[in-house]
Design brief:
alpha+beta; 13 strands; 5-stranded mixed β-sheet; 5-stranded antiparallel β-sheet; Rossmann fold; DNA-binding; 33 helices; TPR_rpt; Serine Threonine Protein Phosphatase 5, Tetratricopeptide repeat
């Protein structure tokens, strides 16, 4: 087997000179194999290989997406039509697929396993020119009335995800690749407390105190907020295996604290690969007992406990701050504030006190108050005397100013924090500075600078063992790739981050990450994978605390449903959003929902409703970063106005969109401006070919299949309507490979074969369109085959 296959490439065998363009029959050769996807045949050394349907489907799906890795969930959703099957069934299916083409799990010359993610096709393919393509020769037919009513608009999905997710990944120290934590890291679980009710704070307060003590003694420790998030998401009976698997910790520390009349007994039990080890300490003060137990653990691990000052007041302050930290870890912001407000005056003047109050203000959404409090701390937190405290304050200022849209101020704060922390051993704080500065660069479209800072943050968070921060970072990287029109790269990061957020139970982040993944999947014309991503987040739909996140989650669910032929469910969700309360900063979400409803209304023949919905949505979409959100509404409005006979109004909307797009730097702005102008010129009986060709060239130069499909469906339909069938065939052939999953591309094949008078091909295309239509009404598209066909 070794050497039979070469690395996958996009090289294709040329068609014979003078041959007609193929319709949608694709066969590939690799090694001694030939696979015909349309005929569902695999031949090896010239002999037919009989395969179970699911095995063939796996091969076909991986081959069609050979330019990228395919996640496990995506493959399962596409082949089995559901999100969960046993690992045994999947493994057996892939084993049969490999054997069928002469591959094996050891060689992996054709199908490579991507650890902890999925699979990728890696064998070199060539297109077989003799795959039975049908030559195209016939007279033209008029274009159908509903020609441009196509798939769910992925631009809206990405636009709403970016709008709702701004600043989501940042938090004042509360803020995937699943990266390993440092070797030998420990995860300290919440304390099992046996004591009266007033000691409930010990469960998390002592947990964090023990973790801090171990960390101060040189023992790498998983951050406490990571552990709390994992515990919330895991059943009690399975908590240790879940925490170990999700955090990567080598040691799991299980503390207990028992109160009696003689004082406290704190016991630490930890286990790595060997047998469990246990120490305990007694003291009248539970924190002192916990500190002593942690010191004994450090000694058993071969480390030296830190030296204490012995200051009684300092220890009293530590106790109060630890109780406040316990309240913060449970999300009890009011309780944490009350504890801090009862602090003695000396503690109230300290930087640590002010920093904690600022964290509470930030998490409560009081950004102005948090900013004022943080800036007041700068004079006492000097670079010379307290560099780490100053860096934490600056990180906080960066978070606040980023949320306020003051990007230059945020960049300055993060940069100073990074300079200070690069000389210190505080990797978690350094990672926050890099990630924050990278987020600013991303918003400023300085994408290379953003990626560089995200890479630096990865290293820092790896050292800190902060899996939750790594997940947030990976989500940021996925959003960065999506913003750069690289959806195939984005989905890899986003799927890993979503899985990590699911493990941690952080539902706001899971909802937004899944939303961006859905948008990217729709950009790749992968509706089944988009629905699989939606299913993962939808099960948590009642839990996000942010109402805008809940709206965005419902929107992304709706577009995924509609793309999979479940239009009635989609419309119900979109209507709820459009009719909802916009007082919680939901204006953009509602506008994008109305734009989607306009597209659907147009598809249903309700042009007047479509025009009203789209025109109402446009003003709120002007400020979106991604021009596709604005373009989707403009195209829907112009198409609806023309359907109503209001061509002059459509021309005005098109001109306004062109003026809006002209100064924008994104290629997508020029692409959709050209497409809108081409459609208007065609409607006015002018030649729009130059604008269509420009739009098609821009789409083909990018990495977004949905852009290509949007242009080709419009251009191909115009060419068919004008009777220019030879040119139409060449254009329509660009999207034939997506006709099995995208309704717009499928219906375009129907129009072409009807115009060419090819009955057999028309019947095949009609059957394919019906198979993916679901409850989307396409009856007008599937009229009786025109007389005179062959």
């Amino acid at each position: 087997m070794q050497g039979r296959f070469r690395r996958a490439s996009r090289r294709q065998c040329p068609l014979p000179a003078g041959s007609a363009a193929p319709v949608s029959r694709t066969a590939y050769c690799f090694g001694d194999c030939r696979i015909d996807l349309a005929a569902r045949e695999l031949r090896r050394a010239g002999q037919l290989v009989v395969l179970p349907p699911k095995v063939f489907d796996c091969l076909a799906y991986l081959i069609e997406r050979r330019e990228r890795a395919v996640g496990r969930d995506e493959l399962v959703a596409a082949v089995w039509g559901k999100t969960e099957i046993s690992d045994t069934l999947l493994g057996q299916t892939l084993l049969k697929a490999r054997r069928a083409v002469g591959d094996s799990a050891g060689a992996q010359q054709a199908i490579r396993t991507i650890p902890r993610f999925g699979y990728a096709w890696v064998a070199e393919l060539t297109v077989d020119a003799g795959a039975g393509a049908t030559p195209v020769v016939a007279a033209a037919r008029p274009k159908p009335a509903a020609a441009l009513l196509r798939r769910a608009a992925w631009p809206a999905a990405l636009a709403i995800a970016a709008a709702a997710a701004g600043g989501l990944w940042l938090a004042l120290r509360d803020a995937p690749r699943v990266d390993p934590v440092p070797a030998g890291s420990a995860a300290v679980l919440p304390v099992d407390v046996s004591a009266p009710a007033e000691w409930t704070w010990v469960r998390l307060g002592l947990m964090d105190a023990i973790a801090s003590r171990l960390r101060a003694g040189g023992q790498p420790v998983v951050p406490s907020d990571n552990v709390v998030a994992l515990m919330r998401a895991s059943p009690d009976g399975r908590r240790q295996p879940d925490v170990r698997a999700a955090s990567g910790a080598a040691l799991i520390v299980t503390p207990s604290a028992t109160w009696s009349d003689s004082g406290w007994i704190v016991r630490l039990r930890w286990q790595g690969e060997g047998p469990p080890v246990e120490v305990d300490e007694r003291n009248a003060d539970v924190l002192l007992a916990g500190r002593a137990a942690a010191d004994r653990m450090l000694v058993r691990l071969g480390k030296t406990p830190p030296v204490e000052s012995g200051d009684a007041q300092a220890w009293s302050d530590t106790q109060l701050l630890q109780r406040a930290e316990a309240a913060l870890l449970t999300g009890d912001l009011d309780g944490a504030r009350r504890l801090l407000q009862a602090a003695p005056e000396a503690l109230r003047q300290s930087g640590e006190y002010g920093l904690r109050l600022a964290r509470i203000d930030f998490r409560a959404g009081r950004f102005d108050a948090a900013g004022e409090r943080l800036r007041a701390l700068l004079p006492q937190a000097t670079a010379e005397g307290s560099p780490v405290l100053r860096a934490r304050v600056l990180n906080g200022i960066g978070h606040v100013t980023l949320r306020q849209g003051r990007l230059d101020d945020a960049a300055d704060a993060y940069s100073e924090a990074a300079r200070l922390l690069e000389r210190e051993n505080e990797p978690a704080d350094l990672g926050q500075a890099y990630m924050g500065r990278g987020s600013v660069a991303q918003l400023q479209r300085r994408y290379d600078a953003a990626q560089a800072d995200f890479s630096r943050a990865h290293v820092a968070f790896d050292l800190a063992g902060d899996g939750l921060a790594l997940a947030r970072l990976e989500a940021n990287e996925g959003m960065l790739d999506a913003s750069r029109d690289r959806p195939a790269r984005a989905v890899t990061s986003l799927e890993r981050a979503a899985r990590r957020f699911e493990a941690f139970g952080t539902t706001n982040e899971l909802a937004m990450t899944s939303g961006i993944e859905i948008a990217a999947r729709l950009a790749l014309l992968e509706p089944a994978a988009a629905l699989a991503a939606s299913e993962r987040a939808w099960s948590f739909r009642e839990r996000p605390s942010n109402p805008q996140v809940r709206q965005a989650l419902a929107f992304h669910r709706a577009v995924a449903l509609d793309a999979n032929g479940r239009r009635r469910e989609a419309v119900a969700l979109l209507q709820d959003i459009a009719d909802g309360d916009a007082s919680t900063d939901g204006t953009v979400v509602q506008a994008v929902a109305r734009s989607e409803l306009a597209r659907i209304a147009l598809a249903d023949g309700r042009a007047e409703d479509a025009a009203a919905l789209a025109l109402a949505a446009i003003p709120a979409l002007d400020a979106l970063e991604d021009p596709r959100g604005r373009s989707a509404a403009t195209l829907a409005a112009a198409r609806a106005l023309r359907a109503l006979g209001r061509s002059a109004d459509a021309a005005r909307e098109t001109a306004a969109f062109e003026a809006w797009a002209r100064p924008r730097p994104e290629p997508a702005a020029a692409l959709y401006a050209s497409l809108a102008r081409a459609e208007q010129m065609a409607a006015e009986r002018h030649d729009g070919s130059a604008d269509y060709e420009r739009a098609l060239a821009l789409a083909a130069a990018g990495d977004v299949p949905a852009d290509v499909a949007e242009v080709v469906v419009s251009y191909g339909t115009a060419l068919i309507g004008e009777g220019r069938l030879e040119q139409a065939t060449a254009v329509v052939g660009r999207v034939a490979r997506w006709a099995d999953r995208d309704l717009g591309c499928a219906l375009l094949q129907v129009r072409l074969h009807a115009a060419l008078g090819q009955r057999a091909a028309w019947e095949h295309a009609t059957t394919a369109a019906r198979a993916i239509a679901g409850d989307r009404d396409i009856s007008r598209e599937l009229a009786v085959f025109p007389a005179g066909g062959i």
